[in-house]
Structures
1.
Amino acid sequence: MMNQNLETLLEIQDLKAQRRDLAEAGEREVQEQVFGLSVDDAVRELDTKITEMEESLAPQIRARYKRVSARLPRVVAPVINGTCYGCFVAVPTASASDSERNAEIRSCENCGRFLYYVD
Amino acid sequence: MELREFLAEDAIQLDLKGESKDEILKELIGLLGVDEKSQGILFKMLKRRENLGSTGIGRGIAIPHCRSLVVNRLRLAFGRKKGGVDYKAIDDQTVNYFFLIVAPPLEVSNQYLPVLGRIAQFAKEADVPERLSALETPRAFLALLEEKGV
């Protein structure tokens, strides 16, 4: 089972990545010309959704999220082969089994990002 | 860069079973071989993109796409649904051919947009829908990509 707050944090970050892409000229052109997307409307819709999801985080997690996001653009980092891909420092091996590593919120001791263990 | 670099034969399904947009998206995600939880997150992200506007670009082709942390490299899948499904495509026609693109939020070589562009370019070629319809094997699909130079 994945921690619900971690799942929300992941979604927020993925939505922010989507929003960031849409703001770039190349992506805007493709989205408008190939998909007929109204990019400005899409960005507004994403902003609303991101705010809504941020507000749905548990208060303690939200406070940590705000602290981390004030200094780092990405608040969740994948852990691949035992390395935090936010700061590229090794993280202690999770004691839980593979299927439960994301069941609780863990943070990188070096950079403070929330950690998501990728298989 | 060629599309087949990102596409394994087992990520090509020429006989999708889904009867709705959601079922097709889930089936396509299933081709990527990621775990169940990651599949759920990818489905949510793809749906969010579809809710902004359909990725059905017309002529029976759709390119659902998203970025997500649950993958650590760019992944592609291709699916064909005989008879097509209602996908709210730009031309209001049913969609038969689906190119799924999933990429991590950050990529060292930033291949996401070029891959999206290449698929869009491929999809615009006049004979592509007919050629996709005639495919008999996943290998033939890879050969078609190679022939078209994408």
2.
Amino acid sequence: MKFKYSFITIFSLILLIFSLLAATVIGSVDLTFGQVFETLFICNENQNSGIQNSCSVDPVYQKIIWEIRLPRILMAFLTGAGLSITGAILQSVTRNPLADPYLFGISSGAALGAVLAISVFSSGIISVTFGALSGGIFSVILMLTLAGRAVLQVERLLLSGVAVSFMLGAFTSLIIYYSDPDTASTLLFWMMGSFSNSQWQDLLLPAISITIGFILFLIYRSWIGAIQAGDEGAFTLGIPVNQLRLMMLIICSVITAILVAQVGGIGFVGLMIPHISRYIVGSTLHKVLFMCVTIGGSFMLWVDVVAHSLIPDQVLPVGIVTAAIGSLFFFLILKSRGRAL
Amino acid sequence: MSSIGSSLNQQHSSAVFAADKICWLVDEQLILDCLTFEIKAQEFVGIIGPNGAGKSSLLRCLYGLNEICAGELTFQNKPSHTYTRRELAKQIAVVVQEPPTHFDMKVSDVVAMGLIPHKSLLAFSSPQEQITIDNAIEMVELSEKKNAAFNTLSGGEKQRVMVARAIVQNPQVLILDEPTNHLDIQHQIEVLQLVKRMQVTVILSLHDLNIAAAFCDRLILLDKGKIVADGSCDQVLTQQNLKNIFRIDGQIDQHPFHSGRRITFNFTDGKVNEI
Amino acid sequence: MKKIVILFIGLILLPFCHLSQGKDDGENKIAQRIIALAPHSVELLYAIGAGDRIVATTEYADYPKAALKIPRVGNANGIQIERVIELKPDLVIVWQGGNKSADIQKLKSLGVNLLSTQPFKISDISKELRQLGKLTGLEQQANKVIEEVEKRYKEITNKYKSRSKVKTFYQLWHDPLTSIGPDSWLESLLNDCNAENIFKDAFSSYPVVSIESVLVKNPQAIIIPHHSGDNDLQATEKTRIWKKWSEISAVKNGHVSVINGDLLHRFTPRVLDGLQTLCEDIDKVRRK
């Protein structure tokens, strides 16, 4: 809040673009910006066309960029942005600074769904992603049902979410316990989050849901802001508080479920990035949302880079990297500010 | 945007609020029992009574947060429940008892919320709006704190911001639930003077009987969910009512500085006299 | 004060006394009641004729067939310590890489007679057989098996020793993509076939790797082990990844092979069957 807002916005956008480029360049193979640029804009995708073009990049590298890196980093960006804006909205709408996208046990539900898809429906009828998505949505429905008629009371909602989270987590652990070690290792790695297997078609659902969600958040931003000032006050301004809250919860749940189904459980991002954004630009919602997209996206991209390059040739689960970097960040922020976040 | 003083668009003699035997219960318990009263345009009405009498509950019925379980409540000659919340919000502004805590929006953003009932979601802000907001902030004397975070203000300043928000809402009825709780004496008087100048119908609940006597045209005295007295200050603030309802002894005479009553409480040895 | 310090140090060192007892137990008793907490140890005991002395084992002990009838007292998640004690064994064989270290410590602290097993290469099998022979008094049978194993092992490895090295990627698991690193049993098998593990410089024995790094290292052969425990989905997924990466030498030349993982992943004489198939598969690259 010490700097001009437009300066900050541009800076964060530049950061995002830089992060996207950096993530494309860094990896098991270190490419140059030139090669990336050429591949994206100059080289013909269809290498067998026989048409001579001025493309000097090895076809293998081109394939790496298009088939492995681009889908992966776009997924990382979408995940970072999606989890961050979801966290921001949930924190506003529940007036709880500790709210995050996994409030409703979505991560546990998705894990349960994934586990069932792999170990019980093992003939491949149900893909892991579909299982995880169903599980995530199931957990939301379960949470709403548990909260019952009091679903519109924030505290009841939060408690219900915690209960669902624990319950489904217990079932998941149980199934993992009885699986063979290979399946167990697959599931555990999945639960810790990974962008590694992202393909272009995997990006569709997240991109659509996050875009729609973002637009809706922007449309309703004045109402959501008013809810932050108290339910009763918002009511007197003519805002349908309960319906709005429920709608926002559902949108956030859908986005989160879709993301978790694709990439597993990645923590910290949805909780901390909104706080960091607010620290930089204040509490105006559309400013916070924009900053969440740029900072959340950049953060996730760098996390992905670290996960792929910290140990040569090896890949770390993303969730571990976010937790490590995240807790450090959180700690530093707490130290530098006096007051509670 | 029209100026703060609202134009009378209702007939002079019709009531803004008309309540006929309204009741409200919660958890099987009757909080408001068969209340009948009328509030006319531009009246400055004070709701007074001991704790638990049902003052806040009554106000909530008026602005629609509580649903009455019996009786009829009309607002501007139409039954209350036929209005949508948004329609009510365009005409009734409320300053609630507790301003939000842990809330760090800028003051001017908070005041800007008052425009919500009048704006569509997709509308962009206009410079005219900013002028309205700034005017309202000036009226509550917080101009130098326009860009401060809400939670850095004192309790009284927060309350004044909420009043500014209500001003921006440009209502015809202003309902305030114990608005003077957090204010020092100077600001208590200033806020009420400001509200009085607004020339809208004002309904507010108060604890301070002297303030009530100074500002209100009319008082409604509640006790245990029933209306015990309803009329001018002179009619309601009697020694009888002081003793029976407030259970305190006092002396009522002419206030030396304004035209209303003055109430002086009588307690010796720091102990309330046994009635 | 000195006495207290010595006593304190003594107490701390006490548990470590048991560690050295692992391989060479002081008692010269012949073991008659054995609990083998590793499937390969079960197999080895049967090989030297001591199968009937096994009173309990863990899940996955499925060879020979008779082993299926042995009562189970544990699985990948842990050992039922109480039952182990209840069965009053003369000898408990624990597997450093396969049993939980907490369980092993517990058994140690209960004073159970332990033998520790953790083979890293095929030549370790002979060592194990020798140990088991001694402990069961069946040295003669053990030596016979050792001789057979070593003979066949030499046959196989000699064949390929002088041939060219084949860069190989061993896909231990597909999701997450896991390979093998230095000091792993499987890498020693690859070395026996004179193949070079492309991840021989990895940081851990079972590294999770990226497709990119496989692409870059461009192996000539890709080995994918298939297990009897795999479900249909897993079986197809394992090979599916590589279909679209014809840039890799192994894929282009058709050297992506699925082999019987059960044989390779066990530290017993049967591994020689697996080794033979593995080396022959890898050799196809040379003969191309």
3.
Amino acid sequence: MKKWYRSAAPAAIIFVFFMGVCVFAGGSEETYLIKGAKVYTSGERGILADVALLIENGRIQKIIQGKETPSVPVKDYSGKIIMPGLVDAHSYVSAYYRLLENTEVITSDMITDAVFDASNPEVELALRSGITTVNLVPRNESLVGGISTVLKLSKDLAAVSVVKKQSFLKISFNGEVIRSDRAPTSLMGAEKWLSQKMRAIKAGSEKERENIFQQNGLQSLLNGDILPLIAASSLTEINTALKWLEDWNMSGVIVGGEEASLLSDLLKKKNVPVLLSPVLPIYPEKWAKNAAHLMKQGLTIGFVSHMPEANPLSLRLSALMLYHQGVSQEEALKTITCNPARILGVADSVGSIEVGKDADFVVFEGEPLDLRSRIIAVYVNGHALFEREN
Amino acid sequence: MPCLKGRTRLVKLKLIRRILRQSLLPLLVLCLFVCVCHAQNPLVMKAGTVFIGNGNVLKDVYIVMQEGKITYIGKEYTVNPETEVINLTDKVITPGFIAANAHMDVVKQTNEEGTEVTPQMNLLYSVDPRAKDFEKAWRGGITCVYLAPGNLNVFSGSGTVLKTMGKTPQDMLVQNHVHLKMVLGREPGQGNSYPSGFGPMLLRNRRPQNRMGVVFIIRYTLTDLQNKNGVPDSELTPDEILFRKVLQGEIPLRIRAKSYMDIKTAFRLMEEFGYRWILEGGVDAYKYLDELEENDIPVIYGPVYQKIGRGDFNREDEKYVARTPVLLAERGIRFAFQNNEESPISALRDEAIYAVELGLTKDKALKALTLDAARILGVENRLGSVAKGKDADLLVFDGDPFEPSSSLLNVIIDGKVFDPNK
């Protein structure tokens, strides 16, 4: 009896998996109309009721107001709410262990597009939560981890599209960098080490040239082709990061930012956007006040999931917590859609529902900030990659 | 032609005068008006006894503070009827105490152990202003501290002088890159104890492992730079530029040396390389009083009541060690107090009280806590005494500050009044 079980179970799993792939791959047509739903555009047009979206070749071709009805297949989402696909600007989805090249502290040549694994269950988890675009970043354990890549999620590896191959150079002043068995062993040392390396590359010393590894990322940072994404969460870390930015006369983005509100004046003066970690289960009140304070200071903020360190649902929860602090619903939703897209520099294709942009959107049962309302469908590049069965 | 030139000059002068009259004067008036409108109300105190910090005492004077600075000190002051005068006629006022070297738990990692020689390290941006020890410090009457990287490197970095209250380290900063710290003795070698070829390949499998190795690294670094005497600054690394400034005497070395061997080594190296230096720690400083006096080397000493008698020190020396401040003061050697890893920062005043009991005069004790500490740190133009133009950092006692029974009533930092007992 037992032997029969063992041989049949993998076969059944493979069969189900293939069926699933077939259903999702062939699920949608080239040109169709999305009708009946209220649309939260996250763009200039605000909230649109009674509109239809004409989708053609994976892009939003037209936003139709009025009674014009083109003769194409129609998908009716009456009474539902559509918002742009969520943009996660700092994610390790599907590749948590492959995003750390731990041989050296500075590995600026790494590019993360190589490690995305479409078959990982985390991808499905992210899609089910409405995340359509991720910035796949190297981990915080390296001082310079490498170059991050902006991807569209898909469960089919062939369908994964790269939006921006080189978005940021990931630098980390986080506590995880500092270890006792290798340099840097302190925060000041981390900053000085990085500056020293950059100075050596700038001077073009022979010793550095021999070292092919670690060159290109920092070189393009020095040339101004790429911006730094600096992981810093506590006050001292953010302070060090800002000092480093000032020393090298660069602009950059800070990710983490749990105590950023203590330095909001400095951040505002240097116009540094902040990508905030998702809501902390331990001090939700303190966390929410920090986020709301930054928002009130006029800084551009966005929420990130650090997936799989946190659940992707925490993006929506973070926006909800911000709403509770007195921020309007529209602004709160922008922190998980168009703000991160703008910070990543991909706002011309994702992050809002506007004509000419990619057809990435999420269909909700009710208000997106109501945690009871379930996600009915998630569309990436015009294809429904997730649809809830009734 | 010369005549014409003269005429044009005259025309120019007239033009300048006209511009002055028509635009600049009204602007000046406007500026003055704006300044007057923006100036805060001054804080006026009528003080009974003021220890200025340089040894003098003033009785029954007004101290006026505005925008964090002392704007007036003296007997004749016409009080504006609207401003409130704080009456402190039965109180004693001293300048805020300065810890010329503070061991505080305000930075997570103070040691960068990547290499032995890290002169560029600086703690300023790693300081957490919300740390408990800052609160302990100002509650103990210490308004200004010197913080430096740790002791596990031979050249471990430059020091930072900070006020003990503020929201960001940049707010608290008085002066950065004050001294370059050099550590003699066993501490830099601690942990570097794997002989090559044995043990795990760790970061600290390197020199130095003892005193001899430490001195080797110092000689190696400084001789290397002496050999580059003709090379212009632009071709040197930032590290080397720092060491050049040390050898030229622009930046003093702060040498942490406790035992007699290390202090002797510091003198010997001074003869070889000719740097300017300050002795820190100096448990055995009393053995080198003549040399210290001759070379005019300040000493940062403490705690007075530290326990010795283990390791490099002799138990018999204990009676001299505690009296070191007295001996230093008798010779006229400038000194200041510090705390160590085992004593809290707030105990600085207790140290001075103890030293007074052992025979130090109160004037010298106060000077060591205030003006001399400021002079050693090179911030005497801003801190260290109660004088016009200096920062309004004051302490209010209900009696003689060196009587254990008198207590600290108020701490004033940058013109803001705080109650340490709340």
